């Protein structure tokens, strides 16, 4: 600023108006100069005329500006939306948004869209990425200017179920550009799904223990009414069965809760050291009961990944618990943390290795299915619900991590969780 | 597609091909998904719809073939464009096969829906289909975004699909041995499982084509197995 003190308001407004009207003013001044040259006007008259034009330009448009501002309700101060690049505005929109041209080629996508659907190159046809027949119909309706509203539902079933409602609008008039906004509907859909899934699973899996409890009650009230020894025995079985039902409900609820969560990659840094320490501490009781020692092999430097401590603890607790129970005969469970700095592509990985009998080959690919049990009897004896690895898989899918299961017959099995590189 | 051609009509033709592939991809994915849904829920109406949908896929494949031949004859494309066009022909024929396999699963729904089947039989099949559909989605997404960064995982997953298929095969065999009355339905389910496994193979083919379109090279050969352990990545 060339001025020492604060510039008076009128001067600033006048200067701004002048700047806006510069072409008008320039034309007027040129016209006056031209007239003067042709018609031979006196110099004082010319000076006066030019001065008048300048003053009019500085004061006049100011009123129109005032009208414009009061007209646009959303515009703060006197700048309006024009002052901000459209990209900033698009980037600030929390819903995924894409701008496409007449052919469906992508012109621009905002950050939310990248986070939700991965990277897009400009020029990619959007119907290649969203391929459902409904989306194609929606897109051709939008392009051909069919009657509003242009809305379609888009669902992705794999790897995680997601639902979006997509709204399309043309941009301006005759630009042949369109904007698509994606509204995430997954949460409401998942609540519906959760209710029906929970009822189906719970009613199926609770029936067996419930039937056995009912049977024992009947026996206790009938033939075994006065048999003190049998009563104790039956009550013990009933207690085990109710405990099993409680565990089942816990696991089903935690699986349902996981399925409820929206699709968002975890964003907080967590130290895997702390996670593993807590898991090993929590599991030491169980390990001692079954006669297994847990051995940690962990580098000294902290190993951070993006995640949520509770979920990670659940993953490794389930893996270590399985290793202790089913690898009991090996007497040792190894928890190995690898920082994964060697190869550029690999992130940190955690391996839980047991030295038990190993897992028969044909069962390995199916271990993460719900209620899949290699041997129902052993599983029941070990208080398994058939949901542990399903929960692990579910959490890891959201982390973009992979679970590798290796088995050496007679020598044990290893479960490796490979996290993506940051 | 982003490379600038002087002839706008040429771009239009290439876009037409990509557009038809998009249509075929969406249709094939939907058919497989609905065929499995129909199978699990014994929904005969949905199965009939899937069978009828296959027509559109066949038609789209003919469109792609005709257009590709015309482009090659008229424009004599080189390098990138040629790979793009040949790739479109290959991908469309793979997708057409995927549609056929989906249709075949849907056809079996009618014969399976007579008697109620135990739910455990379908859990494995659903899980297998989930893997195959993930595979198909990832390769088609890779085709859309022209990124081959994650395409290496496709081979791993194909191995998983094979392993899972073998496991399902054994399971179905045990059911058949338990009770000969199961043989008819289990054989149908065995064919369904085989179809899904084949869908995974077609997805791997598409992955190789996409890799070739994007890089101009062949997809790197499989890594040798590190030891004699049984291994599955999930």
Automatic annotation (TrEMBL), chain A:
Its EC number is 2.7.13.3. GO terms for biological process: cellular response to phosphate starvation. The chain crosses the membrane at residues 21-39. Signal peptide: none annotated. It is an enzyme of class 2 (transferase). One of its GO terms (molecular function) is phosphoprotein phosphatase activity. It catalyses: ATP + protein L-histidine = ADP + protein N-phospho-L-histidine. Keywords: ATP-binding, Cell membrane, Kinase, Membrane, Nucleotide-binding, Phosphoprotein, Transferase, Transmembrane, Transmembrane helix, Two-component regulatory system. It is found in: Cell membrane. SMART domains: HATPase_c, HisKA. GO terms for cellular component: plasma membrane. Residues 201-422 form the Histidine kinase domain. This is histidine kinase.
TrEMBL record, chain B:
Gene3D superfamilies: Phosphate transport system protein phou homolog 2, domain 2. One of its GO terms (cellular component) is cytoplasm. The keyword Transport applies. Keywords: Cytoplasm, Phosphate transport, Transport. It is found in: Cytoplasm. Belongs to the PhoU family. Homodimer. This is Phosphate-specific transport system accessory protein PhoU. It comes from Nitratireductor arenosus.
């Amino acid at each position: 600023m060339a001025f020492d003190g604060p510039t008076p308001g009128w001067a600033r407004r006048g200067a701004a108006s002048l700047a806006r009207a510069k072409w008008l003013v320039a034309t007027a001044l040129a016209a006056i100069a031209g007239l003067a040259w042709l018609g031979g006007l006196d110099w004082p008259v010319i000076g006066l005329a030019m001065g008048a034009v300048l003053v009019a330009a500085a004061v006049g448009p100011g009123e129109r500006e005032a009208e414009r501002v009061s007209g646009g309700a959303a515009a703060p101060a006197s700048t309006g939306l024009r002052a901000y690049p459209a990209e900033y505005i698009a980037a600030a929109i929390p819903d995924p948004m894409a701008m496409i041209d007449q052919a469906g080629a992508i012109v621009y996508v905002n950050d939310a869209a990248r986070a939700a659907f991965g990277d897009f190159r400009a020029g990619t046809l959007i119907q290649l990425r969203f391929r459902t027949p409904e989306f194609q119909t929606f897109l051709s309706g939008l392009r051909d200017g069919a009657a509003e509203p242009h809305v379609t539902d888009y669902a992705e079933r794999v790897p995680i179920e997601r639902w979006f409602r997509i709204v399309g609008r043309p941009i301006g008039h005759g630009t042949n550009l369109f904007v698509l906004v994606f509204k995430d509907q997954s949460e409401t859909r998942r609540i519906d799904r959760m209710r029906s899934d929970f009822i189906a699973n719970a009613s199926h899996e609770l029936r067996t223990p419930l039937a056995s409890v009912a049977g024992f009650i009947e026996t206790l009230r009938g033939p075994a009414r006065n048999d003190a020894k049998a009563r104790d025995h039956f009550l013990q079985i009933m207690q085990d069965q109710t405990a099993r039902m409680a565990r089942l409900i816990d696991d089903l609820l935690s699986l349902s809760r996981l399925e409820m969560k929206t699709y968002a990659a975890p964003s907080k840094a967590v130290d895997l050291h702390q996670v593993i320490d807590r898991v090993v501490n929590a599991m030491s009781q169980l390990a001692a009961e079954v006669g297994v020692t847990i051995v940690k092999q962990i580098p000294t430097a902290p190993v951070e990944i993006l995640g949520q401590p509770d979920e990670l603890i659940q993953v490794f607790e389930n893996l270590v618990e399985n290793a202790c129970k089913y690898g009991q005969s090996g007497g040792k469970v190894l928890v190995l943390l690898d920082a994964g700095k060697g190869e550029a592509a690999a992130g940190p990985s955690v391996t839980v290795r047991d030295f038990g009998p190993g897992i028969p080959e044909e069962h390995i690919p199916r271990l993460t299915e719900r209620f899949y049990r290699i041997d129902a009897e052993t599983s029941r004896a070990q208080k398994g619900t058939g949901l542990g690895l399903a929960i692990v898989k579910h959490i890891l899918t959201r982390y973009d991590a992979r679970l590798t299961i290796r088995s050496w017959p007679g020598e044990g099995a290893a479960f490796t969780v490979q996290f993506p590189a940051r | 597609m982003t490379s600038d051609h002087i002839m706008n009509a040429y771009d239009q033709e290439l876009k037409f091909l990509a557009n038809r592939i998009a249509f075929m991809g969406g249709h094939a994915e939907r058919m497989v998904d609905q065929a499995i849904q129909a199978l699990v829920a014994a929904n005969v109406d949905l199965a009939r719809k899937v069978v009828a949908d296959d027509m559109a896929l066949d038609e789209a494949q003919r469109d792609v073939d005709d257009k590709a031949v015309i482009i090659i004859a008229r424009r004599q494309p080189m390098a990138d464009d040629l790979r793009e066009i040949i790739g479109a022909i290959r991908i469309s024929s793979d997708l057409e096969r995927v549609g056929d396999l989906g249709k075949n699963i849907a056809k079996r729904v009618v014969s399976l829906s007579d008697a109620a089947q135990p739910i455990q039989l379908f859990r494995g099949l659903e899980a297998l289909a989930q893997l195959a559909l993930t595979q198909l989605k990832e390769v088609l997404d890779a085709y859309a975004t022209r990124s081959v960064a994650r395409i290496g995982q496709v081979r791993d997953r194909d191995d998983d699909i094979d392993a899972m298929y073998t496991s399902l095969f054994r399971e179905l065999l045990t059911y058949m041995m338990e009770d000969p009355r199961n043989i008819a339905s289990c054989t149908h389910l065995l064919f369904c499982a085989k179809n899904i496994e084949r869908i995974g193979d077609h997805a791997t083919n598409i992955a190789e084509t996409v890799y070739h379109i994007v890089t101009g090279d062949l997809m790197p050969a499989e890594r040798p197995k590190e030891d004699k352990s049984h291994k599955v990545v999930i």
